[in-house]
Amino acid sequence: MxxxxxxxxxxxxxxxxxxxxxxxxxxxxxxxxxxxxxxxxAPKVDGLDSVKIGYFGNLTHATAxxxxxxxxxxxxxxxxxxxxxxxxxxxxxxxxxxxxSIDIGWIGPSPAINGYIKSGGKNLRVISGxxxxxxxxxxDPEKVKSLKDVKGKKIATPQLGNTQxxxxxxxxxxxxxxxxxxxxxxxxxxxxxxNKITPDAYKSGxxxxxxxxxxxxxxxxxxxxxxxxxxxxxxxxxxxxITNVIVSxxxxxxxxxxxxxxxxxxxxxxxxxxxxxxxxxxxxxAQLKADTGKPLPTDVLDPAWQSIQVTxxxxxxxxxxxxxxxxxxxxxxxxxxxxxxxxxPLNKVLKAEGEPEVDDAxxxxx
Length: 366
Prior knowledge:
Layout: H1 11-16, E1 32-35, E2 50-56, H2 62-69, H3 72-77, E3 81-87, H4 90-99, E4 104-107, H5 109-118, E5 124-133, E6 135-139, E7 154-157, H6 163-174, E8 189-192, H7 198-204, E9 209-213, H8 216-222, E10 226-230, E11 241-248, H9 249-254, H10 256-275, H11 277-292, H12 298-306, E12 308-310, H13 316-329, H14 344-352
Parallel strand pairs: 2-3, 2-4, 7-8, 7-9
Antiparallel strand pairs: 1-3, 4-11, 5-11, 5-12, 6-9, 6-10
């Protein structure tokens, strides 16, 4: 199971040690910015000239990819311009949110928890879910034929303390095996490897497998790897949070109608994705090409897309469980996550759309 971290040497270390170690699926830290055209003659939402939206060029951010490609955010914002920044790492997106460079962002659970803890609960709120699933243990079938064969092998995770890293450490612990969390040494060698280079590391034989998110998992399969375990199978109802929507607390307070407009677009995007999976897959890949310069090949895109579920529900209970796994691994001091969620705007939108409301698992604003 996953767990969302913040590296723990002490709370002071949390402030100085690596936000970069806490990216959800980190591929770097630079953001690309671009802007859409506001709808001529339409009123501005909350009187704003623009709303600045951030997301990753990654399939686990399908809601944002499709919502942007299909013009859903701009449609809901009307005369207010949708301005986008794409990120390669969670920490840089948190920094952008804190500095006001973005107002709302799609992000993984690890950097969301870390950002909330580091700010003393003052800089962000999780306001919606976005995606579940899309994480797999992929192995070299010649070297690893069963789960018990993972012992003694070299298995990659994206970064020390990131969501998948803690998930793998927790799974190792449940097998009764021992690994030092920080060094990665023990009954299994946990090799922290950037997702960009994990496929090459696999091809070279320097790792025997990897516990990674999509599309890296499907890239490994395309290189001859075998899915040994889908993390979804470890969770109740096979659901766990992989992407949430966050907002600056100041923006949420000052511009509630703009927040509702973005959430309306998000809900509509998810509904459209569910109703039109093939068209949505094509739209997401087209936006990936626009954002990164390179679309995913079909043999990677198709299986990766099938393993990700879009959802408005933030699956709050699983976020809390992920945090507890990080505490168990010794990578996170016991956090107080009360107040990390404010789902009132989302539930207002869901009610208007005729959809069921969602729950914050007791971690909402009091």
